[in-house]
């Protein structure tokens, strides 16, 4: 896939205006058609993202004309535009009540440490637990051990 010739011609016109003879001297002794073909090839794919090319043109080096690889890097450096976001959906009163009830069950005195008791039981049964697992169940059940 190559950048269309008309796009390359437009780019070269803009760069010639911006840099004058510094632009034309870059290509002295090189076939102009080969230079344009190289730019078309290297910038291929950017025709689907013209804003990237606009970004490249808006961020040209002030002191010297870019090579095709430098210009491509300028184009690719274009930040992605912010995408509009939908507002967060409102939770229904029903789902809020269900979530609160679920949280209350988890934090109730009878059920919130079942995981720790299960780890303790596994270790006492001879299973080898990780250091983090041993530390967590001991910390969670320290009140039971003290009682």
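^ structure tokens above, recovered residues below v
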């Amino acid at each position: 896939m190559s950048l269309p010739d008309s796009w390359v011609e437009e780019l070269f016109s803009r760069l010639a205006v911006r840099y004058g003879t510094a632009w034309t001297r870059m290509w002295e002794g090189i076939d102009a058609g080969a230079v344009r073909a190289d730019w078309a090839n290297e910038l291929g794919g950017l025709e689907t993202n013209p804003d990237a090319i606009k970004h490249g043109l808006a961020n040209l080096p002030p002191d010297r004309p870019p090579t095709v690889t430098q210009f491509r890097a300028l184009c690719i450096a274009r930040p992605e535009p912010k995408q509009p976001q939908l507002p967060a959906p409102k939770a229904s009163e029903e789902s809020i009540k269900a979530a609160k009830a679920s949280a209350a069950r988890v934090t109730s005195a009878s059920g919130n440490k079942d995981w720790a008791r299960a780890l303790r039981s596994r270790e006492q049964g001879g299973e080898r637990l990780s250091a983090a697992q041993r530390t967590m169940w001991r910390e969670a059940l320290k009140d039971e051990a003290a009682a």
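Residues 95-146 form one domain.
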